[in-house]
Amino acid sequence: MHKLATPMCDNELGREILKQLGALQLNGMVPPNGMERSLVKASMSMQKPALMEVHMRFMKQFSELERDWQLMKDPLAAKPETRPAKKKAVSLEGMRSIRLLELKVGKRYHGRVLHATLCADAFFLNLIQTMVEDEDGYAARVMIEDSLAGLTSWAKVQGRYPNGAKIAIKAPLLSELPDDSVALYVNTEDDLIVQSDFPAVSVEVNVWAKLDAAALRAEGNRLFAKQDWTGSIELYTKCIQKCLDSVRRKPTSNKHKKKGASENGTTSNGKVVDETVMLAFSNRAAAWMKSCHYERALKDAHEALTLEPHHLKSIYRKGCALHGMQQYELACKCFELALEQSPEKDIKLALQKSQTCDMQSRRGVYELSKYLVGGFEGPLPEFSDYVGPVEIRSSEGRCRRGLFVTKDVEVGELLLVSNALVVVHNGNHATGKNTSPSGRSNALLRDELLCSLSNLLLKSPKWLEQACSLADCECHGNTKVPPLELFRPNSKWTAGKEDVVLPRLKGVLLQNALDESGSCTRVLQAGRGSQFLGLWPLPSFINHSCTANAVRLHVGDALFLHASRHLEAGEEVTLAYVNTLLPKQMRHELLEKDHWEFTCSCSRCDLESNLSAPLKQVTKRFQSLWGWKEAVTPGQVECFKMAKLALRLEHLLKQKGLYLYERQLVRASFFVAYWVGYLNIDRLGTLCVKLPLPDMLIDAVTAVAPSDTMTSFFAGYWLKRLEEQGASRPVIHDAQQRAIHIYRCVYGNQTSGLLKQLLEAHEANTIL
């Protein structure tokens, strides 16, 4: 774990996140979309338009996080204006001028000075970043080591380094950054002298100072209507401050003051002041919710209700904040109280939604039939998180954590439902139907996910602790078992007494974020755009097994986890991290290629290890044919060789006298060879009788990988062939039940009628 020197308050957390993103940015981990190569090219040629575009896109990418960080500071705390520090008079006599084009990368020019103009707004992550332009029109990015970075807002940094100011950089150094671009590096603020600055006078501050509390609230409402949540929060805060200051202020003389009047236009009896501040708290609660700061929204709604216990909108907003915090039971009580005052449609809908989520979170009952039968089309439903009969605990004899069932579980039983902590989509996600990717690469999706997670951690201490509880691929040793209340809705979770240690965010994402196929973010192919990437906290504790006993199903941004076979109390829940319809050697190579730092030792791997000698030649031959199109194309020589490989494997299994279940596990490893064997039945002639019946192969792959598309496809394919060949009704019924069993593993304990509908839709190529 990456530990900080001091405990983190909200302000320090924001600064640490900005520093992490700054380090990743300089290493090329979070470049603006599509600008990786152009950044390097523009920085070397010192082209101002291209560099300006990159600079502005960086600012836009991180601006939301910076504004959220500023909002996390105590809004009612005193905020004295800090003026830019005065620069010491520094003599530049005797120092010769130098231009940008004369600078060579990596060389510091002592005794020289670069005269230029700041041509962009400054911002900071771990370093202050801005741009300069010399008199020849060439430009360069500037990285400044300044004590001001991380201690104040971007606005204050821009006040110290104002756009348009004439500057001088002593002993300039053009440095190569880890992302292969170049920039001027200033390692001390004293080496950059602002010779003439033209900071924009903050007219905004003077305007707000002249307005009374009611006018400030009205301006906040105007910004709220424009969906400027941050701006409206700032004005509501100023309104609250002015109201509270007017209550604390003691008038110096009442001789000439009119009765009932005060300096800011409110009445001295406090009634108007109370109403104004109450409405400001209530409105700010609504703005906090729009920004997903549900804890702060709840606090403001509570403040408003303290002043006016029967204020309808405050009661409603309190309920909405509780719903966002997954405190559905308390949210229902708020909406019921609001309905007693006014039977508005919005309140009824909010109550119905909270009641549904409350039932889901307690009983694990979800209505998916319309969504599933509709082929995952239509508006995305909202689902509550659900923690079923599972617990997190350390695995015996292993330095890792895992998810275990607390009671006996049957096939199709729902184990948990988890909404994504953060998720980014590659294309249209207004519906749950998979659409064609928009063309963004996995690298860009990963970077967007990183920025989204960074911004999210400032919004809720619960989300922060969930992220910090996950393993970090770059920082080992996180073996602490978090309480389930951290993930369970309606729980009375409170922030831990111990200081939360912020892990490296990149490590958390690379280790735990997944795409739609279950591939870990760190191993995704750079050129292939996934449908989505997301981070699901509780499922991240599930370990790998080549005989996985659970199946995940994505419905919108929610992940449903069902048991794929009978589980006994205390048994560990597992998923497959790689394709398990392959021999052991190939599975382990995939795990090693994906940089998983473990060697699978499940019962299936142990079995194949014991059979390594007799299976050696078969595996070697299978690997040589694997991946060739001709190996699965009937009529090709390679295809017939693959079919004969299945016959050879059956002979070996018969010689070893294995149990049926053991033979099934081995058959699943060479599933493709058997399928190709069925495609070459005519060429095999009488030898085809040595192949196991297709229903046995279906059972084999179902035991190993029921969620694999090959499994459901093969079951549906064989059922269709039996129907076309006019097989007897019992045979067709038996094949149908096997296919339905696969769908029960994936979709859970739905009704037999619904599972049959899904199977028919699959046969019609409308699903999967």
TrEMBL record:
Residues 388-578 form the SET domain. Pfam families: SET (PF00856). The keyword ATP-binding does not apply. It comes from Sphagnum troendelagicum. This is SET domain-containing protein. TPR repeats lie at residues 278-311. CDD domains: SET_SMYD (cd20071). Keywords: TPR repeat. SUPFAM superfamilies: SET domain, TPR-like.
